[in-house]
Amino acid sequence: MELYLDSVDIKEIEEAFKLGFLTGLTTTPTFMHREGVTDIDGMILKLAKMVPILQIEALGESVEEIVNEAHRLLGLGLDPKTTVFKIPVSLHGVAACKKLVDEGLMVNVHLVYTLQQAYMAMAAGATYVCPLVGRLQDQGHDALALVEQCVQAVNYYGYNSKIMFSSVRHAEHVRNAINIGVHTCTVPWKVMKALTENNFTTLGTQQFIEHTKLMTMKVSEVMKSANPTISLSDTILDALVEMSKHGFGAVSIIDENQKLIGVFTDGDLRRNLQEQGESVLQKKLTDFQFNLPITISPSALLQEAHQIFKKKEIDNIVVAENGKPIGMIDVQDLVGLDIY
């Protein structure tokens, strides 16, 4: 199924055609009016240089006027091999379609609302026959049945026309087009962007990314440069200041050789304040006992850090090398990577 973008917005067009597989662009005078375009010919030439195939309107109140308008547009410098002339269905419209097709030009007979109209376009040799699904549904009609009948007519009688599913309002319309077996679908950018979206896909992708990071990234890649440390001769207030300065909920305790001998956490702070009151802030760390903290190597994979956080239910892990603290990672460092 060919996929066209239905737009005249330059930014949308540039973004959409980066996909690399769109067949072309459909546009209308209404789109141009909404965008405030005043130089229609100039805009048409600009669009023609941006897309593989451009479908533009060739309007007129008679066969001659429609044909002449198509020729005038070609005279601007459009390539007949990459330009499709859109003509509203009518008796003079299908007659003009026949003349242009006989000249080797491509024609889209659109604004089709009935199978009879579609048949006349097919018989005239239209390259595209374009029912407007959304508009027809707005009027309470079974637009999908009409599109299906058009596809069946092409297949049964062997017409060369491609049925174009247009006036797309939502992603479900594109699914309908695929199920019916239309040859072409023209879609607004807002809808096209939603075609790859699904919550289960999003969750699955996030999980794959999370697990990949856990198995490939090292602790050193997320460890901050801050290395909050204090000595046993410092006070709890000093520990609080050091934690606040570096934005961690813990601080490493080191001896005179810079070796790690303990860790003081914000949990320790709350517990001591509750038990002894504010006076505890002036006490030195020598007045307390500390267990050797859980550490991790900077070369360890994040998988190991993740397991420690989960198993030990702690918020900070000291990163140590040769017994000396060189930094710290916080559980929020993993959260920031969408891992935890």
TrEMBL record:
InterPro entries: Aldolase_TIM, CBS_dom, CBS_dom_sf, GutQ/KpsF_isomerases, TAL/FSA
Alphabetic keyword roster: CBS domain, Schiff base
GO biological process: carbohydrate metabolic process
Highest taxon listed in the record's lineage: Bacteria
Coiled-coil spans in chain: none
Domain CBS: 223-279, 285-340
Transmembrane segments: none
One Pfam assignment: CBS
Protein name: Fructose-6-phosphate aldolase, TalC/MipB family
